[in-house]
Structures
1.
Amino acid sequence: MSEAAGAARAVIELHDVVKEYPGSPPVRALDGIDLRVAYGEFVAIVGPSGSGKSTMLNLLGALDRPTSGTVAIDGTEISDLRDSELSALRGRRIGFVFQSFNLIDGLDAIENVALGLVYAGLSRKIRVQRSVEALERVGLAHRSDHSPARLSGGERQRVAIARAIVTEPALLLADEPTGNLDTKTGETIIETFRELHRDGSTILLITHDQAIAGAIPRRVTMRDGLIIDTEAVVV
């Protein structure tokens, strides 16, 4: 990570984070993790199945709390938050992109994107306007009236990305976003993320694919619940 990035304000800070699941003995999925991601960074978390990536995703997305240690997202430490406060933090400050798109078939693209603003207290006119702008950012404004069934896999994922960014989150969190796509389409989606990053978005992408991680400016490698390497990548 560059000196400038290291000095920037953190959107994510994890210190000595442990996550255990009940068992005899307990299963330790994360074993003392330290991680800092600054605003404006684009980071890949990479590792094989069982490395702790999914557990890390749950903590970074305010979907779960650590067993011990501290997790701060956009300056808020999550350990003692009530469920309602965690939900509010996710809705305000985190945009999610998933492998399976999670679009609603009965809604067109612009309506799917607008779902990200349902709890924002905005008028329908403003929700539509912001949704159009989000689709424009991912190059899909011309498909705004298409249902998911009329879109390709790559287009559906770009709609999902537009839905994630429409709230202007502090952090865009992508979980295996190319996992259901062919290689060429996956490269297009990674380029979409790169364009969003160039425009100022902070992005953390979780993947098992070393080739994808190698196309992202910073790579954090996990194994057996530990971060074993973090490095800047020349892209």
2.
Amino acid sequence: MLPDEVVRLLSEAAEWRLYGLLFEYPGEEWRAQVLALLPDLREDRLRALGEAALKHATPGLHIALFGPAGSVPAREVKWQGGVQFGYLMAELNAYYEAFGYAATAEEAADHFAIELGFVSYLKMKQALAVSEGAEQRAAVAAEALAQFVKDHIAVCAEPVFKLLENYGPEYLIEAGGRIVLLAGPSPRSAYPLALPDEIDDDSSEMTCGPGGGGEDLIRIQP
């Protein structure tokens, strides 16, 4: 039997994975992933959110909400207050590379779905370390997770939720509210401000839907 802490971490990993999937493009592979995840969701309400997504999510709805001209921007750069895009992407990629995270969704590193999936991944890494009695590895994963949620998830969670309240279906509104409660208030940006032309350039690179050196910024080890 697994220790209670491991069970808790695995349950939390499944919850965060669901949230990430809710912001991904709903193709056939996505549907299979949601179906496979449902049995791992211990809370009835979370399973209901997954089932609602399977019933109501469509490519058209996803593009209308999260696409390049959508009502709910899902890229962190949009919510960081005009940061230099390179600093943000370098830090995110440094996190992902340090822990060996390879997202399944074909989105940019600062897409909310990718970031939510990374939180789930860190929960899994922490659970594995705890199950193996590797206290230092578990502590590193836990510390990185807490910092990532504070510096990145919290930046997106509240503004995304507020827009979902106006434009999103009920299951996404509920999921957004749950993420806000878990992430806490949005912090002030720690990145240098971008020049106006840099902001315009970054915005033009935003994409959504299917598609084909951060060592100086963070120092973490898997």
3.
Amino acid sequence: MKRVKIVLFMVVIAALYGAGVTGLHLSTIGMVEQNKRFIEQKALVELFNLGDIQTLSKEEIGRIVETQIDQTETLTDPQTGRQVPLLKAYSNATRDQLVAYGFPFSGIGFWAEIKGYIAVDSRLKKTVGLKVIEQVETPGLGARIEEPFFVKPFIDGLDITPPAPGASYMYMGTAGNTPEPGTKEYGRTFDAITGATQTSLAMGRMLNATVAEFRRAVANREAGE
């Protein structure tokens, strides 16, 4: 009888503990989703340089995203059939001046999937920003893809006009080694991260594939107009 009581007591405790954990999980789902959304909103404001996220409030960031970034259009890559979400950023809430386009990129890095956004100017000639929003690369090495030094070439403007046949949209280089004018790498090179060659190569692959997909999707839309 004593053993039965002990078993029943353990069952009750386990049930209460399980119910508590489940309740806690359910109660925090909304908060987790809100935090995830806010992180993405901050990334978009920074990507398009629509404000200083260090001084803007959470409400102001949300308002900028809602009024100055159109996320309603989707393009189709005719080669793969994939849907390409298109973001259009405007200089103000009246949306009378388009300043840039943006689209997501993703791919497998050295350890796991890397996700982010890349922005290009309204004439589709140069990049104007890059923002990584999800990655688990090695701290101090591959994880530096989020740091200003790695992002700077994309903000300064890498050439994304269609390259020569057989050439790439982007190339990985080394710090201080600037390609010469007239070479296929000129104006299309970003710096590799020292000690994180595989992460750098992975970024090059996924960004090249994403830009190529985007350009095909844009050309497909224009051909249908």
4.
Amino acid sequence: MIQDQSQGRRGPRGRRSRDASDMDAEHSGSDIEEYILRINRCSKVVKGGRRLSFSAVVVVGDHKGRVGFGLGKANEVADAIRKGGEVARKRMVSLTIAGDTIPHDVIGRFSGAEVLLRPAAPGTGVIAGGGVRAIMSLAGVRNVLSKSLGSNNKLNVVYATLDALQQLRTKEQSDRLRGLAS
């Protein structure tokens, strides 16, 4: 079997150029994209041997400022993912986004995890890892800098990221909260 040099076993290498029609088709309507962040296997020792169960952390978003996550647990991987997706869709929240970045610096905290988010200049991209990257991408934030401090437990990092995102306010919103006329 002879393969083209530009393709490996896993398909074409390098970045595929995407035009506006691809992007519109990908993010059109009210379609919600799902991303499986983590699948964890748990085993319980019983009289007959080991009983396995699975948990899945699933993040969903519409690339327009709405994002949510859910934890699903079941005896099968597929059921855990499905349950996590259902929980995530029910718990979706709307976020404050300024263009394609966030309006200001913010720190989110949950348990032992801390996440620092900073707005970035256009063209920077999503500089984040793991759970923060998944949430930012699915929320529609294209330029952001982040640093995960403290715990690296993915579920706690996701909680901390959402805590940070829910603290965001635009200048108009903060003026209104203070009672200043605009």
